[in-house]
Amino acid sequence: MTIVRRGGKYCLISKKTGRNLGCYRTRAGAERRERQVQYFKHNRRRPEQRQYAVDVDGVLAEMVEAALARLNREWGTHYTKYDLTDWDFWHLLPELSALPEPKQKDKLFRTMEAAWEAGEVRPTPGAAAFMRRLRAHGRVTIVTKTLARDELLREWLRDNDIVYDELIHIPKGSKLSKATFQQFDVFVDDSPKLAEEVPTGKTLLLVDQPWNQNVDMRSHVRRIYSLHEAIPSEP
Ligand SMILES: [Mg+2]
After folding, report:
1. For 5-14, which contacts have Cβ atoms below 8 Å and span 24 or more sequence positions?
2. Which of 79, 92, 134, 202 has the smallest number of CB atoms closer than 10 Å to its CB?
3. Are 74 and 168 in the same domain?
4. 235 lies in a domain?
């Protein structure tokens, strides 16, 4: 860190990232801030207390695959997830984009719900072992907006031997509170949107999916190609 003068103020700048860590009227103020930042740097939570947030759809569950299989049966098409190269992927399927605007997403959401109800959603291979191993490294919370009914989701997790410390199942149209979001250190997720939302100091392990190829890689985002890459290496 270094203190530089900017617009008559003393600003603390990170040498590593160039980020402005705060500007103060006096040099003493900036130095105080520097000591504070140092303190947090050296008193980070120990790894065993690390807080993980793990997503369901696209991470633990092959939900898109199940929904697509349904649509393929209905339409006589052969789409695979590799055709879905955008997060808002309903625009990419002509059968969906031909529908009036509100119906596009609606049809997709109903298909996803139906796939869950029919028991067609498979766990990602290795998901159970991954969650078991991850829990040795911290507290693991499943944070998901998946469209499965809550009871069904809990059953699905149990039937597939997927263990966790807590489940936060966010209802459609709701958002995780900022305070809850802030409590996590590491997110294991496939959402390209999350890459923009995760603040510096937190880590997003972005599970590689066709719909997140365009994410701007930032210092706190790491792309992983298998869930096991999210397990910290044993000392
Ligand atoms: Mg997801």
Report:
1. 12/37
2. 92
3. no
4. no
Q: Which range of residues forms the domain containing residue 19?
A: 2-42
CATH number of the domain at 192, please.
3.40.50.1000
The number of folded domains in the chain is 3
Tell how strand 122-123 and strand 2-6 pair up.
Answer: unpaired
pTM over 0.85: no
Amino acid at 59: V
Distance 60 CA to ligand 1 centre (A): 9
191 C-alpha to center of ligand 1: Å? 6
In DSSP terms, which residues pair with 169 in a beta bridge? 144
**Residues 55, 67 within the same domain:** no
48 C-alpha to ligand 1 centroid (Å): 25
Centroid of ligand 1 to alpha carbon of 55 (angstroms): 6
Tokens of 226: 């298998």
What is the block-wise mean pLDDT of the chain (235 residues), using blocks of 10 residues? 92 88 90 77 63 98 97 97 92 92 91 98 97 95 96 98 97 87 95 88 95 87 95 73
> Is residue 173 in a domain?
yes
Using only C-alpha atoms, what is the Rg of the chain? 21
Distance CA 148, CA 115 (A): 9
- Whether residues 197 and 223 fall in one domain: yes
Summarised one tens digit per residue, pLDDT across range 152-201 is 999 999 999 999 999 999 998 888 888 889 999 999 999 999 988 888 88
| 88 assigned to some structural domain | yes
